[in-house]
Amino acid sequence: MDLLKEAESALCSANEPGAEVPNGAAGHYLLGLIYRYTDRKRGAIHHFKQALSADPLLWAAYEELCALGSAEEAAAVFGEAAAVCIHKQYLPNGFSPQNSDMSSEDQNLNSARRSMDDVSPRQLKQMLGNNARDVAGSYHGTTASSRGSGQPLNGGSSQLSLYNTPSPVATQLSGAAPPPPCRNLQPNGPNLSTLGADSSPRSTVNSTIQAPRRKFVDEGKLRKISGRLFSDSGLRRSTRLAGEAATNATTIATSVAGNGASNSSKYLGSSKPSSVALRAVSIRKGHSWASENSDEGVRNEVTDDSRFNPTLANCSCPSGDNRTFDQDGASMPVAGPVLTSAKVLTGTAEVLGLLRLFGEAYRLSCMYRCQDALDIYSRLPHRHYNTGWVLSQVGKAYFELVDYMEADQAFNLARRTSPYSLEGMDIYSTVLYHLKEDMKLSYLAQELIATDRLAPQSWCAMGNCYSLQKDHETALKNFQRAVQQDSKFAYAHTLCGHEYVSLEDYENGIRCYQTALRVDARHYNAWYGLGMVYLRQEKFEFSEHHFHMAFEINPCSSVIMSYLGIALHALKRSEEALMMMERAILADRKNPLPMYQKANILMSLEMLDEALEVLEELKEYAPRESSVYALMGKIYKSQNMHAQAMLHFGLALDLKPSATDVATIKAEMEKLHIPDEIEDFL
C-alpha cells in the first residue's frame, strides 16, 4: 500500500525505541526495504545484514545488499558462521553428547537411537512393518485405553513422517488429505492427554481441519468457499460432537483421534472416509526406508517429545492426531533423528556451497563485472545452470557486455525453461530492440501480456516494440503503464525518459530520469540518460558530471567511457578525453565509437597521421560506417590531398548517411572544388 511510515511504526514502536524487531530475520528484511525506499541507505544495509545473520538462507536480503552495492563476498556471508547458525536451528539439542542438562528419559531415547545406527535398512523396514501390523490389528480396540491416557503408541516413529515426503500417488489412492506444510508449530504442543482433558472437542476438531488462507481470496469469497466445503457435513459433525461431549475424557480422546481422518476427507469434499487402513509408501531413490500410517487419513504427528528435535518447534502440523506406533507396550524408537542429523550436515554444506556460487556471481553482476560473473555461473552444475533464473542472469550479463547475440540465446533458453517467469524479460525486450528483431519482439510482448497483464516487464516489452517502429507516443503510453503497475520499477522510468528525449521533450525526460534515480540511485542508465540530455543541450559540465556518476557505478562500460570522453573533449580537457578513449577501446574493441572519437580528438590536436592510422584500423571493424570515410576526407583535405579527400567523401555519400551528414559532406566537397576550378582557370 506504500504506507512506509505506518509500516515502520508497526515494526518499531516509537514508545519502545530499543525493542526487538518482531519476527527476527523477516522483520529486519522488511525494515531494510522501508529504509531503502525512504533513502536511508546506511540503515537499510544494517537491517539487511541483521536479517542475514539471523537467517543465512534469506537470499532476498543478500540480493538487496547486492543491489545497494554493499554486499560482502559470498564466501564470507555463506561460510562457516552461516553453517553454525543453520546447525543451531535444525540439529536436535539432545543429539549432542556434551549436553549435561539432558533428562534421563532423553538419554535413554538417544541411546536407543544410537543403537539403531547399526541396524540395516531392511531390518528397520521389517520392524516398522511389524509395528504397522500391530497398530492395524489393535486400532479400534486395545489401543483406545492407551490413547486415552495420553501415551503415544510408540516411542519415535512420529519423527519419521516429518523428514520423508509422502508419495503423492499413495495419497491420491487413499483419498486422505496429504500432510500440511510444517510451520509455526508451538513447542511442547497439545498431546492426547491435553485433548482428553479439554471439555470442548469442537475447538480441537476445528483447529485440526483449519486450512491456511489463500493469499488472493478476500473474506467474502472465503466465507462462500467454506460454506460450500462444509455444507454436506456440518449437521452430521455437529450431532456427532454433541453426542461425544457427554462421554468421559477417555472416550473424548479416542473419538477425536479416530475422527480426524473423516474430518480431513470432508475438507476435501468427500463424504465417505477412505477404506484403506494402512498403506506403504514408496520412497524415491536416496531414501532407504519409510512407512506411513494412513488409517482414514491419519497422519503421524509430533508428540510431546518435541524437545528431542528443535526443528519441530519451527514446524506447524495439526496436533490433534498425536499417535505413533506401539509394539507390545514398549517404545521402539527408530533412527530418524540420526539420519536427519546427517542429512542436515550434508545438506547444509551443499546448499551453502551453491549459495556461495550464486551469491558471488550475482554480486559481481551488480558490480557490472559481467565477465567474471559469467565465469562463475559456468562453474555451476548442469542442472542448476539450466534454470530460468540463472539463464536470465547470464542473459543480463551478456547484455551489459553489449553481446546481444549471446544475450538473445540465453534469454531464449530461459523462456523455454521457465515460460511463465518474467525475470529479466524487460532486458530481453531491449536486447531484441537493439537487434531490430521486430517479429520476435512483437511475439514476446504478446506472450508476456497474455501471461501477466499486471507486470511492468510486460508493458516494457510492449513499449519497446512500438519504439522500434518509431511510434514513440504509443511506446511512451506503454512505459507509463509499466510505471503505474510498479512505481518502484526504475527501468520503466528510464525508458519513459528515453522516449521523451526521442520526442525532444527534454524537460519531461529529465524528470523521468530523476525519478528513476530516486527509486534506485545505482541505476546507471538514468545517469547516462541525463548526461545525454545535457550533452545535446551543450551543458557540458552537467553532462560530464552525470557521465562520471554512471562511470563510477559501471566502470566496465565502453559506451559510458566514450561519452565521458566526448564531454571531457568538449570542456577542452583533451588529454583526459584521450586517456578515457583508450580505456574504452580496451574495454570493447568491437565498439567503433571510442576509436572514431579518438581519431576526432587526435585531429583536433593536429596529430593527423595518428588519426589516419586509427581510422584505417577502424575501417576493418566498421566498413560500412559513412562517418569514418567523411572524417578521413576532412583529414586528407587538411593535408591538401584533394584527390584522396574527394574519394573518401564520395565513399561516405555512397553509404547513405543521414540527411544532416549529407549536407555537411556536400559542403566540404564544394570547398574542395572551388580552388581546383580557380587553378584551372589561371
Word description of this protein:
The chain has 682 residues and is mainly alpha-helical. The chain is built from 35 helices and no strands. The relative contact order is 0.06. TPR repeats lie at residues 25-58, 456-489, 490-523, 524-557, 626-659.
Helix-strand blueprint:
Layout: H1 4-11, H2 25-37, H3 41-54, H4 59-67, H5 74-77, H6 80-90, H7 104-115, H8 121-138, H9 144-148, H10 168-174, H11 192-197, H12 201-209, H13 219-230, H14 234-244, H15 249-267, H16 336-366, H17 370-377, H18 382-385, H19 388-400, H20 404-417, H21 425-435, H22 438-451, H23 456-468, H24 472-485, H25 490-502, H26 506-519, H27 524-536, H28 540-553, H29 558-570, H30 574-587, H31 592-604, H32 608-621, H33 626-638, H34 642-654, H35 659-681
Write a brief caption for the model:
The protein has 682 residues and is an all-alpha fold.
* Structural shape: elongated
What is the CA-atom radius of gyration, in angstroms? 35 Å
Content-based structural category: mainly alpha
Largest pleated sheet: none
Strand tally is: 0
Mean pLDDT: 73
Throw out a few tags for this protein:
single chain, 682 residues, mainly alpha, 0% strand
